[in-house]
Specification:
The protein is mainly alpha-helical and 543 residues long. It has one domain (2-67, 80-103, 111-273, 280-439): Amino acid/polyamine transporter I (Up-down Bundle). Helix content is 76%, strand content 0%. The protein has 22 helices and no strands. The chain has helices spanning 2-28, 37-40, 52-64, 67-75, 80-108, 114-121, 124-155, 157-179, 184-204, 211-225, 234-259, 279-286, 294-302, 313-337, 341-347, 352-365, 371-404, 408-413, 422-437, 441-469, 475-504, 511-536. It is globular. The protein starts with a helix and ends in a 7-residue tail after the last helix.
């Protein structure tokens, strides 16, 4: 049965890419003859063209994170059928449209953020509201993913060693590709071989340290990674990362075909398997990646759009990467669904990553990969996902923070206030995200999912506004947008109710997260009200 699910998903995703993805490109007017911002605004730091394979690697590694692994495994409590349906349908008609649209509109608007697009189509007040919402969401991304990485480093020390060596390898790879004329295929072969040597080195020399030590190291790393030019770390690391991630998916799929696991979890369990955990809206929030993710819109308009070499690459990078992530989510679901209910519950006492790495190592053992090596390999891939998303989120948070305090006049004259200084903005973003993350993964993840998916709904609204202003078809966005608003606002309201009840009863509840949840829902409602009337108006907004 697991093989059938994999093959169904793979075939449907390929068909969707060739048909629906091409239709979207035609409806929106993707034009390969236009010059992209990577060329017109090339500054050697943020704006610079990247080859399609390199950019796909960067974008996929950045958007995937640990979300398409954690989400489907956690949501399996509802049964594997609703999870599978939402991953496949969501990736094609919701997440794919969201990612493709966000990247396309940003490329057309000089690589600017979704907030800028809202400013252009609606107004400055709405842009400010969106920027605040986006920045708060990015703090939650930093908090959630930092915890995932630190837990991985503490529980599997070999992953820590490999990750640190990989950072050094990425810098060397970036320098070689930028400073020499060696062909990419040659440096790629050497780089990937060195990457797998790093995995072996991690097993030989594991670095053991406590949670606090690793947490401080990770915070220092993302500060540096978000300020250095993209070519020296971001591009090369994400490009090499993509081979690690592709290999993991390929090995997992082959392992599933050979192992032939049966799906032992129930297809559907209950509409409410635990207290206040309703299938709607929580299924669509728990799967915070793998079907749709607001973080993707920030990556697309934050770093990826500044590196698109030609508009013909937008479908591959925007729509294609989302479908690859959907495939990863299906594999993650199978790693949980082949277990019995007691086995699933036992492994979930660790983390969803434990379920995933154990399951994939078991599958890969059938094709000759030793179980322990396989588990380390998968744990490294998860860490690589999360680390990539973490420093990308920090860089984008820095962009948004800088942009928030800049006026048009300051942009034109180049007079940057201290608060918008790159290093000041990065420091504030890292400190706030780090402090929030210290409360732990279990506390942060529920609100991260709600905020992330609500951000996706608002990004869809922004793309719809922009397409309308250009006289382009935006009807394919309306239904996904309405559905995501309904699911996310319901989830935030439920989260506020739960935390308020806990605090009033004198039980454990998070006051900071309660405040953030209330702020997010107020910001969202105000923004929806102020922009929806523009979308419904007969006259296009600013063009």
């Amino acid at each position: 049965m697991a093989i059938v699910l994999v093959l169904i998903a793979l075939v449907i995703f390929i068909i969707a890419y060739l048909t629906y993805g091409s239709w979207l490109a035609k409806e929106w007017g993707v034009d390969p003859s236009r010059t992209t911002p990577a060329h017109t605004m090339n500054d050697g730091i943020d704006y610079m063209p990247a080859r399609p394979a390199v950019l796909l690697g960067h974008h996929f590694a950045s958007i995937a994170g640990a979300g398409p692994i954690v989400g489907p495994i956690t949501a399996a409590v509802f049964g594997w059928v609703p999870v599978f349906l939402w991953v496949v349908i969501g990736s094609i008609f919701v997440g794919g449209v969201h990612d493709f649209g966000s990247l396309f509109t940003s490329v057309r608007e000089r690589g600017k953020s979704i907030g800028f697009i809202i400013n252009k189509t609606v107004g400055d007040t709405e842009k400010k509201l969106f920027d605040i919402f986006s920045w708060l969401t990015l703090l939650l991304v930093i908090a959630a993913f930092a915890n995932i990485i630190v837990t991985s480093f503490v529980t599997i020390p070999s992953v820590a060693t490999t990750s640190l060596l990989f950072i050094v390898l990425a810098v060397i790879f970036g320098l070689v590709n930028s400073q020499t004329k060696l062909p990419l295929w040659l440096t790629t072969i050497v780089g990937v071989a060195a990457l797998f040597f790093c995995i072996l080195a991690g097993q030989w020399w594991p670095i053991i340290a406590g949670r606090g030590t690793w947490y401080m190291i990770i915070m220092a790393y993302i500060w540096v990674a978000s300020t250095v030019p993209v070519w020296i770390l971001l591009q090369p690391r994400d490009y090499l990362n993509s081979f690690l991630l592709y290999a993991m998916i390929i090995f997992a799929v082959i392992g599933i075909i050979v192992y032939r696991p049966n799906l032992q979890l129930e297809g559907f369990t209950s509409f409410m398997p635990s207290k206040n955990n309703f299938l709607f809206p929580m299924l669509f929030i728990t799967i915070a990646c793998g079907a749709i993710s607001g973080f993707h819109s920030l990556v697309a308009s934050g770093t990826t759009s500044k590196q698109v070499d030609s508009e013909k690459d937008i479908k591959l990078v925007g729509y294609g990467a989302m479908l690859i992530e959907g495939m990863l989510a299906v594999v993650a679901l199978i790693s949980a669904a082949y277990l019995t209910q007691p086995e699933y519950a036992e492994l979930m006492k660790g983390t969803p990553n434990n379920v995933f790495s154990t399951g994939l190592a078991t599958f890969m053992a059938t094709i000759g990969i030793p179980f322990e090596f396989g588990k380390t390999f998968v744990a490294l891939a998860i860490s690589a996902f999360a680390l990539t998303s973490l420093d990308t989120a920090t860089r984008i948070g820095r962009y948004i923070f800088q942009e928030f305090f800049l006026t048009e006049e300051q942009v034109e004259t180049g007079q940057t206030p201290i608060i918008s200084n790159m290093y000041v903005a990065t420091t504030i973003t890292v400190l706030m995200g780090g402090l929030l993350g210290w409360s732990g993964y279990a506390v942060v993840w529920p609100i991260f999912g709600s905020a992330n998916q609500l951000l996706a709904a608002m990004a869809l609204l922004a793309v719809a506004m922009w397409l309308k202003s250009k006289g382009r078809n935006h009807k394919m966005i309306i239904l996904p947008m309405i559905f995501m608003f309904a699911a996310t606002l319901s989830a935030l309201a439920l989260l506020i109710y739960n935390h308020t009840s806990l605090l009033m009863a004198g039980e454990e509840g998070s006051v900071p997260l309660l405040i953030i949840a209330i702020a997010l829902i107020i910001l969202a409602i105000v923004l929806i009200y102020r922009t929806w009337k523009h979308l419904r108006s007969e006259t296009p907004a600013n063009t």
